Amino acid sequence: MSKKRNEWFDWIKALLIALGLALVIRMFLFTPIIVDGPSMEPTLHDRDQMIVNMFTYRFWEPERFDIIVFHANSEKDFIKRIIGLPGEHVEMKDDVLYINGEEVAEPFLQDQKEQLASNEVLTNDFTLENLPGEFEVIPDGYVLVLGDNRRNSTDSRIIGVIPMDQVVGKTELTYWPINRLQLVGE
């Protein structure tokens, strides 16, 4: 009888450790998210399921074109692409991105731009000064984000620059649906 009790105790202990590890991983390291809406198409599709790396920005600074999840408000998280970093001036003119006056290519938009008629633009003109907050440069601790579907995205053009303390993490993997399994990024 004692041997059976020890065996049960070992199983319960193993399950509790496994649950504890899963909880720690889920709360502090990685979390799943479901894309809600078309704002990141064609890179990400509505209902894509992804893994968000929640610890990356504890050790490394954000990089241009990282795809991040952030708290847009108390009820909703958004997923967008980092375009501008702290200390930078951002401008979009004639469908060309300028950072501190220098042209920056956005290769992830190339296919969309090729499908436009000659008189159409994917991203309307704006400058950082025209966005909410009216900053001349992006303040420390903030990033400017845009959706890849520039014609249908609630992003920094509407909500302003995003404080890094509202960033949940960086998306790294789409795992569902299985035919969309991919590492995401540039």
UniProtKB/TrEMBL annotation:
CDD domains: S26_SPase_I
Annotated EC: 3.4.21.89
Membrane association type: Single-pass type II membrane protein
Coiled-coil regions listed: none
Cellular component terms per the entry's GO annotation: plasma membrane
Transmembrane segments: 12-35
GO biological process: signal peptide processing
Matching PROSITE patterns: SPASE_I_2 (PS00760), SPASE_I_3 (PS00761)
Keyword annotations from UniProtKB, A to Z: Hydrolase, Membrane, Protease, Transmembrane, Transmembrane helix
NCBIfam families cross-referenced by the UniProt entry: sigpep_I_bact (TIGR02227)
Family of the protein in this entry: Belongs to the peptidase S26 family.
Protein name: Signal peptidase I
Protein source organism: Oceanobacillus arenosus
